[in-house]
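Input chain follows. Return structure tokens only.
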Amino acid sequence: MARNTQVSADHNALPVTQILATFVATHPSKGWSDAVDHEAHRTFINWLGCAVGAAKHEAADAAIAAAKMLQPAAQASVLGRADKLDMANAALVNGITSHTFDFDDTHLKTIIHPAGPVASAALALAEHLGNTGREVIDALVIGIDVACRVGNAMYPDHYDRGWHITGSTGTLGAAAACARLLKLDTAQTAMALGIAASQPIGMREQFGTMTKPFHPGGAARAGLMSALLAKNGFTASTKALEAPRGMMQTISTKNDWSEITGELGERFEISFNSYKPFACGIVIHPSIDACAQLRAQGVTPEQIERIELKVHSLVLELTGKKEPQDGLQAKFSVYHGCVAGLTVGQATEDEYHDAFVTHPDNVALRRKVVAVVDDSIDEASADVTAILTDGRRVHIFVEHAIGSLQNPMTTALLESKFHGLSDPILGETQTTALIKACWQVGNAADVKNIIALATPKK
């Protein structure tokens, strides 16, 4: 039977591949405000702490073992470990570890975790090439802008279809960052973006498994390779993003081209980045915050008869696992998040260890959480009522959780989070020195000091 192969051209599609390539290749160094540059350093610090913190996770062990079967050249470092790999696989592993704890940054408009793909690719390449710290920060700002602008154009349709938007757009962001570090011209950069456009990575089905953090790692590796291919003359379509059969129109019915081009070079998406105080899916944070506030008011697990939780439907769609069997699954359980908030007042990686998740007391308390959908509540909010055994009701409504743009992580909290992740790997003294070096990376002659401080001493 003949099949209809006609595809309708979108005559309104802008030449966004070329527009983005010109921006990446020609935008001036530090061509943004001091506030944007400060946010870039906060993003770098948050990403690096997350990557170091998960350095000993079994996912990192497995990925490094697989990479070493390829007998890679020792071009770039695995953060938090003594291992060196080729730069593409170093980008892969650092991208994996940066997302393993689900503790990384979030561009709230799209739920993209942009630093994982972009910074992982950029630092691995910069270590090998000897780029300056300023060039790394420039590449981070520009790469994140590309990833998030493309995400803005496709969200939520693309995400609702089942794509993990961090991986699918992160490949483009990583390619842009690496093209910038390689000093590719506009034509070469268009090729890098075009090659990356054929490699969107990640399905939401993988959430709760090691393959979820593979997505930013795989995007980092693919983006880096795209830029290297382009540097050496590999070609791609000059309309790879916007063509009727290009990346964006293939994987999303929503394509708002103005989200890519509007205020390009003037508004930077890294300005809207946020950092997690809790090591789990971002939509769980308001519920954890509310339960931590209950605990601060003196409510104890022993007093709980029932927890009534009202949340937006997206919260239960993404994090509705009632009976998580391990830490990875618990990161997608708003029920477990409530337990962590009530029992500990926080939700760091310690509260997602398998032993904590499966502890009988925590399982019993989790089963007392009754969640219902109320779409009059924003997806970034939560309404929690504790019904106590003595009949009292204690109500907390969280409109903006800690870590949101309206209630952001302070510098002190960000550094404390870094210490919590890195101290067990590097020790407190070395971690303190690493944090100081991260704040100064934009002025550094190269990234050698960052790499040295992020490597455990023998």
